[in-house]
Amino acid sequence: MLIAIDDCGRVTLPRGNVLGHRNENGLRVHRVIHPKFEGAYYDIVLDFGGIQRVIQIYGGEIAPDGDILAEVGDIDAQFRALKIEEGEMLIFKSDIFRVRVLP
Asked: Which spans in 53-97 are helix H?
């Protein structure tokens, strides 16, 4: 899967939205193209109906583990860039998008 986020936070998934299959453990590596902010930390937040899990982005990629892929279904997701500047937390968020975990 390729997750592309533009400078306005809009998200496109040009290769589909399958995050993985249930209980896969780091077998799929997904590319994330996103705006760059000097000194920022990047992640994707997955919302499993009130329970949120975070996948950190390393080198423009994510590899969900079996804990993330434990349940089958559609999941709301959102990209975040977080940076502390002058003692204040700055956050850039993308639009919410849907990814899928297959059986």
From this structure: none
* Predicted confidence (pLDDT) at residue 95 exceeds the cutoff of 90: yes
Domain with 93 in it:
4-101
The residues, any chain, with a CB within 8 Å of residue 86's CB and separated by 6 or more, are none
* Residue 88, domain CATH: 2.60.40
Question: What is the count of structural domains for the chain?
Answer: 1
pTM over 0.90: yes
Residue 45 φ/ψ region, left for φ over 0, alpha for ψ in the -120 to 50 degree band, beta for the rest: beta
Split at pLDDT 50, 70, 90, the class of 58 is very high
C-alpha span between 30 and 20 (Å, rounded): 10
Q: What is the mean pLDDT of the chain?
A: 94
Alpha-carbon span 76 to 99, nearest angstrom: 7
Tokens of 9: 């936070």
- 2 forms beta bridges with 31
